[in-house]
Amino acid sequence: MGTVSGGQQARLDIEELLATRLLVQGNSGSGKSHLLRRLLEQSAEWVQQVIIDPEGDFVTLADKYGHLVVDGERTEAELVGIANRIRQHRVSCVLTLEGLEVEDQMRAAASFLNGLFDADREYWFPVLVVVDEAQMFAPAAAGDVSDDARKVSLSAMTNLMCRGRKRGLAGVIATQRLAKLAKNVAAEASNFLMGRTFLDIDMARAADLLGLDRRQAEMFRDLKRGNFVALGPALSRRPLPIAIGPVETSARSSSPKLMPLPESREDVEDLIFTPDPEEFTRPLTPRRLTPAPRPTVDILAELSRATPVATAPQAETARSSGQPELSPEEREARLSTVLSEIIDDPQAAFRTDSVLYQDFLVRARMRRLPGPPLSLSEFRRRVAITRSGVDEETAASEGWQTALDLSRRVSDDLQGVFLLLAKAALRKEPCPSDARIARAYGTHSARRARRLIGYFEEQGLAVAHTDFTGKRIVAFPDLDAETAPGNADGPDEEAVATDAAE
C-alpha cells in the first residue's frame, strides 16, 4: 500500500481482507480516492473487483486493467441481470453513476449490489466490492431523498457488510465523515485506514475504532494528504501510520490548481453577449428530474374518500339501508368532535401532522362522516384553530376573524402558535408560558418558543415586551389588543391540569 516510517513497505493481506472488510475515512482532499486506486491497482491481477463509483473517477481503470464500465442509467432488472453475469463470468467492473441524481444513484447501486448478493451459490467467487462516498448509500439519518430510496440503499449496504462475507463479497467502503455513515454498516469492518479529519465527533469515532485515547485523536488533524493510520488483521495489529504509494492511473477529475486568468480583451462583451450560431442548432439536454414520491396522506385521503357523486338510485339505496342523512350543521358538529378527540390526546402535540391526519381519516370513517374528507391543508388549519382553545363567543367576534386572516401570513406549522397568542390577547388572558407555546408548536424546547415570538415580531405581526415585574406581554397592533402579563418561565398550565385530572 505504501511505506511506513523508516521506509519499510506497508503491506495489506488480500486474503485476510476478503474475510474481514475495510473502512476508509478522511475529509475531502485527504487522499481517499488515491488510496482506493492504489488498492485496486495492486490487487487487480489477484482478485475480481467491483467498484461503485458515484463520480465516474475510476472508469480509467478500464484502459490499463480491463475493467468493464457499466453505466448506472439502466432499469433495475437490467442492473440485476448484469450483476449476476458479472459474478458468473468473474469480470471486474466499474458501475459509474455519474450524471444521475442522488436518489437515482442510491436506487441503481442498491439494485446492482442486490444482484451481486443474490447470485447463485455456485458463483460465490471472492469479489472485492469497493464503494466510494459510502455515506451517500448508507446515510446515518434521513436527508433530502425519499424514505423508500434510503431504505433500499441502506439495506443493500447492510447486506454487503454484514452478510456478504459468506457469499464471497468483501466490502471496502470509503466515507468523508464517520458521523454521516450508518453505524451498523461501519461497525462490521475489522480493518481501518483513517485519514485527515477535523471535526471533533469524527475524530472521536475514529479514535474509538482504532482503540486510541481521546487525547490521541488530535493526531488526525495533523495527517498530511495521502497519509493514513492503519489497523486491522489485514494491515497491522497496532495503529500504524502509512504513506500511500503512487498510482499508475489517474482520475478524470483532479484537485484544483491555481491558474492565471487570460489577459483582458477589449471585445470581452461581444464574446460573452453574442451567441454562437451553433447554440441555436445544438439540441438541449433536459435535466433528468426524479419524480417526487407520492405523499402517503394523499393516498390515504383517496382511499377514504366516499363515492364522488351519488346518483338518484344510489341515494335511494342509502336511504333504504337506514343510513341517516346529516345536515351541514350536524356534519360540522361531528367533524368538530373528531378533531377534539384527536387534539385532547396529551401526546397529540408532539406527533407530526401526517400521523394526526391518518388518525383523523380513520376516526372519520368509523364515525361514518359523509362527504369528502378534509384535505391535509384544511386539516392543518382546523387543528391550528382547535389547538388555540378559542371559545364560541371569541370565535364569533370580528377580532378573531382578523386574527384568522393574519395567521395566513405565516406557515401552516406556526398558525397554531399565532392563534394561541392572538386568542389570549383578545380575551386579555395572561401571555402563555414558553412551555405552553412549545407544546402548541409540537416541541419541548422553550428556546424555540421564544424564537417563534421573535419571528412574529420580525414579520410585523406582534410586539413583545415586559412589564416592571419582568412578566411578558405580547401585543398585536392589527388587533388592537395585547395579552395580560404572563410568566414566560412558568409551567404549561393545561398540561398540569390534565395530569391532575388523571
From TrEMBL:
InterPro entries referenced in this protein's UniProt entry, alphabetically: AAA+_ATPase, ATPase_Atu1862_pred, HerA-like, HerA_central, P-loop_NTPase
Region (Disordered): 305-332, 481-502
Pfam families tied to this protein: DUF87
Biased composition (Acidic residues): 490-502
Domain AAA+ ATPase residues, every copy: 18-184
PANTHER family in UniProt: HELICASE MJ1565-RELATED
Protein name: AAA+ ATPase domain-containing protein
Organism: Allorhizobium borbori
